[in-house]
Amino acid sequence: MIKELFRKDIHRTIEGVVKADNLSDEAVFQEVDEYVITDELSKKFEDFFDVYSGSIGKPTESIGVWISGFFGSGKSHLLKILSYILSSRRLESDLIGELFLEKVEDTILKANIQKALKLKTDTILFNIDQKTDTGANRRADDAILSVFMKVFNEHRGYYPKQGYIAAFEKQLDKDGLYETFKEIFAKESGNSWEIGREQFEWEVDNIAKAVSEIRSISYESAKVQVEKLDSNYSLSVEDFAKEVKEYVDTQEKDYRLIFMVDEVGQYIGDNTRLMLNLQTIVETLATKCQGSAWVVVTSQSAVAELVDTNKLAETDFSKILGRFKVKMNLTSQNANEVIQKRLLDKKEEYKPELETLYSKHQNSLASIIYFSERGRSYSNYRDADDFVLTYPFIPYQLDLFQSCIRGLSKNEAFQGRHQSVGERSMLDVIQSVAKAISEQNVGTIASFDYFYDGIENIILPEAQKLMTTAKNSLDPFSLKVLKVLFMVKYVNEFNATIDHITTLLVDSLEIDIAATKEAVKKSLSRLLNEVYIQKVGENYEFLTDKEKDIENEIKAMTVELPDLTKEMADWLYDNLIGISKFRYLANKQDYAFSRKMDNVRVKGKEEELSLNILTPLGDEYDDEKLVHKSFADNDLIIALHQDFDFERELRLYLQTKKYIPQKNSGNISSTEKQILIQKGEDNNIRRRNLLEKLKEQFTQASIYFNGKRLEHKSSEPKTIVENSFNEIMPSFYTNLGMLTQEYKEQDIKNILNNTDDLLTGTGDALTESELTMFNQIKRMAGDYQTISVSKLLEQFSVKPYGWYQAAIMCQIASLYVKKAIDITEGHLLDRTEVYTALTNNRKFATTLIKPSKKVDDKVLKKAKEIVGELLPEIALGSAGSREIWQLVRAEVKKIVAELEGYKRYGYIFSEALDEPIKTLSLIDVEYDDFYDALLNNEDALLDMKEDTLDLLLEFMRGSQKKIYDEILSFMKRNEANLFHIKSEKLNDLYAIVADMTPFQARKIQKANESFDLIQAELNALLAEAKEEADEKLDALIKSLQEDANFEKVDTDKRVQIIRPLQAIKESIESSRDIDFIYQRVSEQNLDEYKRKALERMDELLPTPVGETSTTPPSRKIVLSQIKPQGFSRLKTAEEVSAYIKALEQIMMDEVEEGKEIIV
Hints:
Number of helices: 52
Largest sheet: 6 strands, mixed
Mean pLDDT: 88
Strand content: 5-15%
Low-confidence stretches: 755-763
Shape: elongated
């Protein structure tokens, strides 16, 4: 049996954690006796004692020691052993340290330890979390100080639970009254002081009586003092260090007091203030005590890591690191070595048997202890020696177990807020597992589920709630699977795949690994169905109670088949294939295809080519059915292998995707929120794994078309689809091979320009593809169908052709160039228009095609004669029937457009343009009607040319039009002046502008002669009028200059009088209006000019020296403006006398009013 292999009884009691209340001589002796000094520990002891012993006999402030290491590294055990070594405690007559020395081989280390043992030393060993009072504020800044003070009071024999009571006791002790006080109190109370102080509030009267008696003060005064003890009490780091200093000073020379604190790192956590509180305690003790008081702590984190976690300021960081000069970091390897030597050490007589056992199973061990390359690698047995050291465990278990504990602890799975693993050490757990299988035969291996059993009693009830339920409902093996999944739940680097779970459950060197794997699969399926676990990709994960509730809610989400279909279609066509058309390599053209899944189109529009992917979501087909189906459906079929797990995982993916946002929208706890975050991350992984699996299925799929199975080699879905379509194209489009070359849009222009004989062929010979299209056009025309470019595109792009647009357009262009077809769009198109019609898709529906019409040679000859006479400017040469039509039509359109343009001039004879326009339009017809129209309208066309068209064009294109325009302009400009002209030649001009045919019979030449005479006469009249006006204005200017006042006006101002008259002269000089000129120098206007000039002259007269001008200039009136009323004609002397008298009276009135009369 396994228990017989071990050198020491596997069932013996081993204390694995710090327990200050379990320090019996027997327990301490066992601890020291069994302690294993590994190579790593030896170096750590050297580091510690080099500093510790080196400071003996001299002051030092390097009194801080930081021991770090994760669970199982042995840090707490090392702390305990150091407390045993350094304390002055004896076992019988020997110091504990001297017993330890027997294990030390290094002479320098032994000397340093011996030096330390000579000192009187007390160690205070405690777990800081356990020593914290229940209900105390552990986040308070002075939480650590309170615990230090508590254990220090306890060490001195004072009451540890309340600092003010301990302070009271200390003061009495210092005054030599403590023992007397206890005696008097016991007499007054009836209880010992040790009992009474536990109920201090109820014993105040008795305490006051005792104080009154020992202090010789009144009871009342004593009671006041006792009642104020609590409120008067305060504690600071300085006070604490001072008390420690006072205490060590009462001890013998070189005495040392060491505070040994377990799990301080867990206690501090991320509380920056607590870290600073610890640093201040160590710093102040160092300063006050100068080496007589030390602090040794343990932590899962190294001090630098913990400080970094708290993100302290750089100065604080340096201080803290400086306080802990000795830093001892233990690794998991140290724990492994201790376990092997202390617990698993084998008896010599059994080692050969174990070596033989290893040799027997050495080759199979690699297959039963298997970890894939994905994730972290875990160790198997290195060799026979390693097997002997580790059996019945496997090397990986020790490392994995530590990772499990760290993960569970981090996620608060254990009891005890700051404990790394509650009341159990790694040594405890390994021993419990070994004990559990100790009665089994050699060859049995400790499967990893036993490790769960080893820590079960310290797992929080809520964390193991599901496990309790599982014990009552699951079979034993499924329970084992669930246990190992619980253990590795928070080990991120461990992939809990089927193979790895199987490895964890290996329980014998003789195991049937294949059978075990099948059992694991069966159990995992059951655990999934009962929602104890979930699957993420290939990994399985334990679900906590809350996770299970959420998982059940997720699986209750409604996801219909259409939801699965849409997601699968998106993954297949968007993520994996990623194309909706493929490039046919033979002609470098893209062909679109319908995208189907399980016989239903799921993407895009219906296309002639079709890809149908059969998935695990659809019906199942065997090979024979798929062959028949591909023949009947004419689809390219890609059949994925059936996989029911895939459908289940896809459904779970969609349920989770749907659930998370709904759940997040409500009120949820922080725990639920964290679970949802993890669910989202797991679901992303699930999606990636499903896509990878789908891609793998695609590469292994079976492909069918037209009753045949196709082969493929690619590992990329997109390439598989492209290659498969390329393979089926010749059999799908049987007439595609008629296209013997690759066509591009540029080739349409080349063909129409007839620049490439390879494209257009020679002569009228048609290629196979051209002949096929031409015959189709003739058939359609024979059925009286309208043949558009769109219709030809539609017919020749589908089966059996599959021609692409550029190829179809090139066939049409070539048929056009070879005169096999006509192309129209309301009219017959020329080559330039044909190119536009074949390259502009907006014209495809309106561009029509028909077989070309042939013209008789006699008709063609006659047409040339008519055209040569009608339009001699056209050079027909050897032009064919269509070219003649195109040339004539272009020239006719040109002439008609010119005539239409002339109508825009608005000439009176514009109606004369209508006849040639109308006659020419008779031959502006389509090709099919042109020759009939030309021959039938020969006389009308030629008569129109002789009678009207030639004369009109000569008139409009030559100098006649210019003369006509000048006459029209002259008559319009000089409409008023013409009344002054007496010449009869003016009638010729009136006649020509009213003539409806001015372009006939030299009419314009005659009018031009009269036009010259009339212009000369008008110019003479204008000159005469201007001369007469100048004379009148010059006379007026002279009369003003001769006025007596003119000389009185300053010379530079005189221009203001004359300038208005000069402006009038200038306006007359530039005028071409005779009436305007005479009006400007009428008698009335001349009088007004003179009046205004004299008024201005008066305004400009200078004021005499010494006078101020208060009288405004006189107002002026022209004599000619004064007319007595009632006189129209004077016939008698009496009437003349009366008129003179009336005029005199008016003049007198004007003068009396201050006006000046200008005569």
